[in-house]
Amino acid sequence: MGLLVDGQWQDKWYDTESSGGRFEREDAGFRNWVTVDGSAGPSGVGGFKAEPNRYHLYVSLACPWAHRTLIYRKLKGLENMISLSVVHPFMGENGWTFAAGEGVIADPLNHASNAYEIYIAAKPDYTGRVTVPILWDKKTNTIVSNESSEIIRMFNSDFDEVGAVAGDFLPTDLLTEIDEINDFVYSAINNGVYKAGFSTTQEAYEEAVTALFDALDTLEVRLSGKRYLVGNSITEADWRLFTTLVRFDAVYVGHFKCNLRRIVDYPNLWGYLRDLYQVPGIAETVNMVHIKQHYYTSHANINPTRIIPAGPVIDFNEPHDRARL
Ligand SMILES: N[C@@H](CCC(=O)N[C@@H](CS)C(=O)NCC(=O)O)C(=O)O
């Protein structure tokens, strides 16, 4: 794993020395928005109008952030208008690559062997980490955005007039509440598992793991009387929580040492996770082989033998009883 410095690839692990062993996630570098009319969005520059067959999405099936964008591409019926590439689950000295493998979809546009080449194609002197997801514009040959939280907001509504499936996961009247819960879930849970797993001091680990389980305990109570996090139907807040929960027992419990409790030990969170998993189309976006292979083989400092554990056996298709709520 590594990063680009002035367009040059350097193989470097995260620097936790200056932060007391704490993992600090870098902000995404490309922050433009696809909009209905091509005007600039909340950040970045304009020029990216929502048009069918204009955009390409690069993802890892292992990555919880990229997974959000795949879910929206599926649920909003964008598969026929936004093309897709999938990186190899192993992220080694060259970062994400398109090495041949089960489930890998090569890059038909930039013909990149490594994802960093896509960043260089967009910005030859790019400095920063090379992350997925990446939303690419085939018309101007550049990266629109590499920030999943913003890509899903584009997918949610901006393609509606050009043939996306109806459905709004961000109703205006719930926006404030969704933003609030997103912040809480991001810090303690989505990013919390990484903070626990990538910490390099006992203190940093304990801080993260305590906040993580406090947050899960809070949500367990919240979901005892409510089917979804906000309002009466599935919203963005649920999909953002889902991609971490679905990886939790298979990866974060063992590999990231988030092992005070498993999701299957929380009756409400476990039912909620199955409920979301069983939404039509969602199961196809979950690839447990890529997920386990990525985490257990890519972080040699955490799992030097690179052995992928056999279990746990989890049945996400077990009936849930959440419809009563
Ligand atoms: N803020 C980004 C974060 C994306 C991200 O960190 N992706 C991970 C994969 S799970 C990655 O590509 N990491 C490579 C690296 O940090 O070098 C987003 O949500 O889109």
UniProtKB/TrEMBL annotation:
<feature type="active site" description="Proton donor/acceptor">
    <location>
        <position position="194"/>
    </location>
</feature>
<feature type="site" description="Lowers pKa of active site Cys">
    <location>
        <position position="252"/>
    </location>
</feature>
<keyword id="KW-0808">Transferase</keyword>
<dbReference type="Pfam" id="PF13409">
    <property type="entry name" value="GST_N_2"/>
</dbReference>
<dbReference type="InterPro" id="IPR010987">
    <property type="entry name" value="Glutathione-S-Trfase_C-like"/>
</dbReference>
<feature type="binding site">
    <location>
        <begin position="129"/>
        <end position="132"/>
    </location>
    <ligand>
        <name>glutathione</name>
    </ligand>
</feature>
<feature type="active site" description="Nucleophile">
    <location>
        <position position="63"/>
    </location>
</feature>
<dbReference type="InterPro" id="IPR036249">
    <property type="entry name" value="Thioredoxin-like_sf"/>
</dbReference>
<feature type="binding site">
    <location>
        <position position="96"/>
    </location>
    <ligand>
        <name>glutathione</name>
    </ligand>
</feature>
<protein>
    <submittedName>
        <fullName>Putative glutathione S-transferase</fullName>
    </submittedName>
</protein>
<feature type="domain" description="GST C-terminal">
    <location>
        <begin position="171"/>
        <end position="298"/>
    </location>
</feature>
<dbReference type="GO" id="GO:0005737">
    <property type="term" value="C:cytoplasm"/>
</dbReference>
<dbReference type="InterPro" id="IPR040079">
    <property type="entry name" value="Glutathione_S-Trfase"/>
</dbReference>
<dbReference type="Pfam" id="PF13410">
    <property type="entry name" value="GST_C_2"/>
</dbReference>
<dbReference type="InterPro" id="IPR004045">
    <property type="entry name" value="Glutathione_S-Trfase_N"/>
</dbReference>
<dbReference type="GO" id="GO:0004364">
    <property type="term" value="F:glutathione transferase activity"/>
</dbReference>
<dbReference type="InterPro" id="IPR016639">
    <property type="entry name" value="GST_Omega/GSH"/>
</dbReference>
<dbReference type="InterPro" id="IPR036282">
    <property type="entry name" value="Glutathione-S-Trfase_C_sf"/>
</dbReference>
<dbReference type="InterPro" id="IPR047047">
    <property type="entry name" value="GST_Omega-like_C"/>
</dbReference>
<feature type="site" description="Lowers pKa of active site Cys">
    <location>
        <position position="295"/>
    </location>
</feature>
<feature type="binding site">
    <location>
        <begin position="147"/>
        <end position="148"/>
    </location>
    <ligand>
        <name>glutathione</name>
    </ligand>
</feature>
